[in-house]
């Protein structure tokens, strides 16, 4: 199984650079052929309209053919801020969540917890 891990911002940057260099089709094809794409930090950075439209192409091209995993701490209700356009936000959410399995791990940060445990001696 082939897997590609990237942050969402790195993917958007890669797509924007490919678009400027007239290589967008080949980059989208590369992501389309991977069995699993893992997008981390989804929804952390606000995207401009062009970036959101470029990102939209990845789940659209992959839907019902290949697996996509998305990691985010942002609830769906806040995604409209990330994508700027509510219609585009709904379209992206629909493609990512169609026939998906949602795994909610909670709001506790394991990094923060590990730091606290390292700073506070066990009693």
Description of the structure:
With 123 residues, the chain is mainly α. Helices cover 51% and strands 11% of the residues. The chain has six helices and three strands. It has a three-stranded parallel β-sheet with strand order 1-2-3. The termini are far apart.
> Reading side by side through the largest sheet, how are the strands ordered?
1-2-3
Average pLDDT for all residues: 90
Please tell me what the overall shape is.
globular
Helix-residue proportion: 40-55%
Number of strands: 3
**Number of helices, counting only DSSP H or I runs of 4 residues or more:** 6
- Classify the beta-strand content into a percent band: 5-15%
- The helix/strand order is EHHEHEHHH
Rg of Cα set: 17 Å
Largest sheet: 3 strands, parallel
Amino- and carboxy-terminal Cα gap: 45 Å
In short:
The protein is mostly helical.
Characteristic terms for this protein:
51% helix; three-stranded parallel beta sheet; 6 helices; single chain; 3 strands
Topology, element by element:
Layout lengths: L2 E5 H13 L3 H9 L3 E5 L8 H14 L4 E4 L8 H5 L2 H12 L12 H10 L4
Parallel strand pairs: 1-2, 2-3
Helix pairs in contact: 1-2, 1-3, 3-5
């Amino acid at each position: 199984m082939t897997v590609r891990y990237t942050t969402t911002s790195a993917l958007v940057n890669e797509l924007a650079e490919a678009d400027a260099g007239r290589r967008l089709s080949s980059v989208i094809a590369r992501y389309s052929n991977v069995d699993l794409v893992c997008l981390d930090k989804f929804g952390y950075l606000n995207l401009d309209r062009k970036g959101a439209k470029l990102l939209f192409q990845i789940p659209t091209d992959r839907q019902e053919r290949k697996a996509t995993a998305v990691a985010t701490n942002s609830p769906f209700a806040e995604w409209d801020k990330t994508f700027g356009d509510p219609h585009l936000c709904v379209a992206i959410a629909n493609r990512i969540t169609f026939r998906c399995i949602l795994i909610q791990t909670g709001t506790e940060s394991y990094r923060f917890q590990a730091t606290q445990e390292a700073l506070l001696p066990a009693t």
